[in-house]
Design brief:
7 helices; alpha/beta; single chain
């Protein structure tokens, strides 16, 4: 499978800088994921908007998106392999400092960055936005090197009742450095302007939750990439 992706950086800045992998929603590598990568580049990072499905596989139809996502998530080995290749692509960029990497993801992408963490990837941090919150095994918890940020919509109907609390409890007890923000009233896709226009029940943009979660990401990245004292 030929996988694509787009890398963004500010060419007015010289020298290696922290790198951030951006993993798309179940729709594929669309303009939303690219825009988040552009925003990160404007803040001084090198950002790689990765393609997890295959070149050109982008859709606005939930049926296609669900099928493509299921094809990847059904085989965790393949899923992690593709995510690892994306991370290696970012690390190899001359603009990136391979010792200072993070990964963020939205929806399916949020689960993807958690899979990278569970696989023991060399990441300073991962951040999941309205992701499905997969819970790993004790062995996977022990492999995690990254700090974890979770931005969760408290009214997300795609997350079963009690699962978010269970995720927080289990990961916290495992010793993983987890900070989790649950945004009251926010539904699935709360960071995506125009999410409501897709006509899917339980999916809606929430401007306040979007701003708050993006601010939390900025603070998180500043923390994990701060020079050691």
């Amino acid at each position: 499978t030929e996988l694509g992706g787009e890398v963004y950086w500010d060419d007015a800045q010289s020298g290696p800088r922290p790198g951030v992998l951006v993993v798309h929603e179940w729709w594929g590598l669309n303009d939303y994921a690219r825009e988040r990568a552009r925003q990160l580049a404007a803040q001084g990072y090198v950002a790689f908007a990765a393609d997890m499905y295959g070149k050109g596989r982008v859709t606005d139809h939930p049926e296609d998106a669900g099928r493509w996502m299921s094809e990847i998530t059904a085989n965790v080995g393949t899923w992690r392999e593709r995510a690892t290749l994306a991370l290696e692509t970012l690390a190899a960029r001359p603009q990136a400092d391979p010792a200072r990497l993070a990964a963020i993801g939205y929806c399916f992408g949020g689960a993807t960055v958690m899979q990278l963490a569970y696989a023991g990837a060399e990441l300073k941090g991962v951040a999941s936005f309205h992701g499905p919150l997969p819970i790993g095994t004790p062995e996977e918890f022990a492999a995690v090197k990254a700090k974890v940020l979770v931005e969760h919509g408290a009214a997300d109907p795609f997350i079963k009742p009690g699962h978010a609390a269970r995720f927080k409890e289990v990961l916290g007890a495992s010793g993983i450095d987890l900070r989790m923000h649950e945004h009251p009233g926010a539904k699935h896709g709360f960071t995506v302007p125009g999410a409501d226009a897709r006509g899917m029940d339980g999916v809606a943009y929430d401007a306040a939750a979007d701003r708050a979660s993006w601010a939390a990401l900025q603070a998180f990245l500043a923390e994990i990439f701060a020079p050691a004292r």
